[in-house]
Amino acid sequence: MSEFTQAAVTITSSSLSLNLPPLPTTSRGKNIVLSIHPKDPDKIIYASGKYVVVRSLKEPYGKESFVYRGHNSTVTVAKFSSNGNYIASADETGKLRVWASNTPEKKSKLEIQVLGGPVSDLAWDGESKKIVVCGDGGSSFHLRCIIWDTGNNAGEFIGHNKRATTVDYRQQRPFRIMSGSEDMKTVFYAGPPFKRDSDTTSHSNYVNCVRYSPDGEMIVSVGSDKKIVLYEGKTGVVQNSWENVHAGSIYSVSWSSCGTKILTTSADKTAKVIQMPSGEVEGTYTLGEKLGDFVVGGVMSGSTPCVVTLSGKIHILNASDFSASPTTINGHQGSVSSMFLDKSTGTLYTGSSDGTVAAWEAGTREGKNFTGGTNADLNGAVHGGAVTTINVADGNVITSGWDDTIRVGSAATGSSDGAIGLGGQPKCSGSSGSVVVIATKDSLKVVSGGSIAGELEISYTAQAIAVNVAGDIVVVGDSANKIHIYSLSGGDLAESNVVDGHTGAIHSLAFNSEGDKLAAGDVKEVRVWNTADWSPLIKGKWQFHTSQIKGLDWSSNGEYLASIGTDENLFIWCLAKKMRRLNYKFAHKGGAVGCAWIDEGKIVSAGSDGSIVEWDVAADMAEKFK
């Protein structure tokens, strides 16, 4: 069973059969914090936008992922408690939330303002009672330790005069805390109640990460000075240091479960495994040569290294072969801005606000990012802005984006090469067979054979397009509540009718497989039109959405219709039971961009939360529409 959480409310549904969460959020020049479950090292946790993601490294495209959606601001760090029962997550506003990880409800246990600015890192004590956070405290302290069930302070943390970038907590008694900062110092605290015990200036640039060994006997710090420093765990006394281990800033360090090795990641696009306390480099992983291959974070899953590059991709490295290709978890860092399910193959295609395009294999939903585009060196983006539309025609994946271009990608190779200018920003699209129709601000463009085959100027604002199965009728919904009907021959469009009657702007359209019915969604209502004479078949009954309906799709038998919108609701409607509806609330935080039937009992949807979700609705439909 997959899970979502919405604010303090958890959305848990047995109907959620698959959840593909977004990739970690990354930023050039900054490390990201990764952490693993203390009892299940195959379970990783990270921040992605305003969300916290927990996913399995064994089955990264499987059913075990969940997305916590309780923060209202960008999440900066999240970690499991030492007993694995809770998760602490903090955001850019300085708020800390503690919530249960071992229950379906993921109930919130604490929300507190811990710092005056963004939190950079946090750590739990070994008894899961206290949490220390660090970050930008403004004119106040840059660290704070609290007893989390009361919110009371557990010490006084002076020592840094700039943003504290990293912190860790010794898991054994006597408890100790070490922090690192942009002031280039590491500070050692003894307690509780904690007070500064000592500080060192072994680094000559920002300290990016400090981490205790599992037994608490050693602690390591790494920094932008390319230096690794080893300390004694109880006293904080420097034991050794190594310079220029990497050719670039060292962003993170993580210990193996046996406590004899560390994993370091760097801007030199490598990750290294180093034996401790000798400092001998056991091996080096090279992640690539592009800008997006900067290795900005890493964690040891037992003895298996797992790293994240600037592109956001998660790479599971081979623990016994430093030259072996990694297992890469692909996807999107940003929100999903468009989706298309190729029903002939079952492959799902999605586009993102970051310009990337991904293909998700039928059945397994293993992801693969398309290559090509203007920003490929960083994140493999196909477009120079958000991907507005995706369609498949004759084995080609036709995408359009905010860079005002169309790109023709190969479904077989996953390559999108060459751009076709649109002359304006794309608004919406529809397709059938070999034909794709894309609307810009002032025109409709017919794309066929990988090129623009026809064009028609329009005087209205198009917001939704659908093409019937035969490919000879195109319908366009506009902002003035109308549906424009066109005949299509070759690349020529000719308007034949205008359907009026909706009370809001049209945001989605869908023909059934027979082509005799058209579903149209506006800002609250779904109507069904008879395409023979364009009379309404269903009117005034399916009006339970509360904002824009962004996706419509008919089941293959034409008996059911799915709708999804910016109100975060997924509805299923039944032609035979017009007064009944099946509703899944909080489907996507921030709204959805589309939905599609995979088969008669399964739906896939995607949305602004960056998640791609499959819903097993067969049992619910049988009960609701019996």
UniProtKB/TrEMBL annotation:
GO CC terms of this entry: cortical actin cytoskeleton
Tell me the PROSITE patterns matching this sequence: WD_REPEATS_2 (PS50082), WD_REPEATS_REGION (PS50294)
Q: Tell whether Repeat is among the UniProt keywords.
A: yes
Gene3D superfamilies the record matches: YVTN repeat-like/Quinoprotein amine dehydrogenase (2.130.10.10)
InterPro entries referenced in this protein's UniProt entry, alphabetically: Quinoprotein_ADH-like_sf (IPR011047), WD40/YVTN_repeat-like_dom_sf (IPR015943), WD40_repeat_dom_sf (IPR036322), WD40_rpt (IPR001680)
Which GO annotations describe the biological process of this protein? actin filament depolymerization
Q: Where are the WD repeats?
A: 68-109, 200-241, 329-361, 542-573
Among the GO molecular function terms of this UniProt record, one is: actin filament binding
Q: Which UniProt keywords apply?
A: Repeat, WD repeat
Protein name, as recorded: Uncharacterized protein
Per the UniProt entry, what species is this protein from, by scientific name?
Answer: Triparma laevis f. longispina
